[in-house]
TrEMBL record:
<keyword id="KW-0804">Transcription</keyword>
<protein>
    <recommendedName>
        <fullName>Hut operon positive regulatory protein</fullName>
    </recommendedName>
</protein>
<dbReference type="GO" id="GO:0006547">
    <property type="term" value="P:L-histidine metabolic process"/>
</dbReference>
<dbReference type="InterPro" id="IPR036482">
    <property type="entry name" value="Regulatory_HutP_sf"/>
</dbReference>
<keyword id="KW-0010">Activator</keyword>
<comment type="similarity">
    <text>Belongs to the HutP family.</text>
</comment>
<dbReference type="InterPro" id="IPR023552">
    <property type="entry name" value="Regulatory_HutP_bacillales"/>
</dbReference>
<dbReference type="GO" id="GO:0003729">
    <property type="term" value="F:mRNA binding"/>
</dbReference>
<keyword id="KW-0694">RNA-binding</keyword>
<dbReference type="GO" id="GO:0010628">
    <property type="term" value="P:positive regulation of gene expression"/>
</dbReference>
<comment type="subunit">
    <text>Homohexamer.</text>
</comment>
<dbReference type="Pfam" id="PF09021">
    <property type="entry name" value="HutP"/>
</dbReference>
<comment type="function">
    <text>Antiterminator that binds to cis-acting regulatory sequences on the mRNA in the presence of histidine, thereby suppressing transcription termination and activating the hut operon for histidine utilization.</text>
</comment>
<dbReference type="InterPro" id="IPR015111">
    <property type="entry name" value="Regulatory_HutP"/>
</dbReference>
<keyword id="KW-0369">Histidine metabolism</keyword>
<keyword id="KW-0805">Transcription regulation</keyword>
Length: 146
């Protein structure tokens, strides 16, 4: 199993999340991959999960029926949220709020086709007390096999 240098799925996910919809630094993923982007702000981690899952299903990144793909996406989201929240996936209950841009990327990052698809979720934005000006930058990445 060899990770192809030009197909690092996490790198593409992070670049998409950080770049957002700006044309300043266009990010082009490999043609056979699927991706989507969006924004979410909340004091509730469940709303963050729901926004990302809804976008991924709406854009055809994962199938809306069935468990396996939703489960893989969920674990990638939770890993990314863990990075954003420094291991404590809590927001409102500890008086924190987030304003995030997210990306979801699906594809095979390996040279061998039999390795199958993987999914990456990247989150980039701010976290802090629910008082404007009290936030700081944050980033998180989660990658899971499908």
């Amino acid at each position: 199993m060899v990770l192809a240098i030009d197909r690092r799925i996490g790198k593409y996910a992070i670049l998409l999340a950080m770049n957002g919809d700006q044309e300043e630094f266009p990010v082009v993923t490999p043609s056979q991959w699927k991706s989507c982007m969006g924004k979410v702000g909340s004091m509730d981690s469940q709303k963050v999960v729901a926004a990302i899952e809804t976008a991924a299903k709406r854009e055809g990144i994962i199938k809306s029926d069935g468990y396996r793909e939703t489960h893989a996406l969920y674990h990638a989201i939770m890993d990314a949220l863990s990075g954003v929240t420094r291991g404590q996936v809590q927001l409102g209950s500890v008086m924190r709020t987030v304003g995030l841009r997210f990306s979801v990327v699906r594809g095979n990052p390996y040279e061998e086709l039999e390795e199958g698809d993987w999914i990456a979720v990247a989150l980039y934005g701010t976290i802090g007390a629910p008082v404007r000006g009290s936030e700081h930058e944050t980033i998180g990445l989660g990658i899971n096999h499908i």
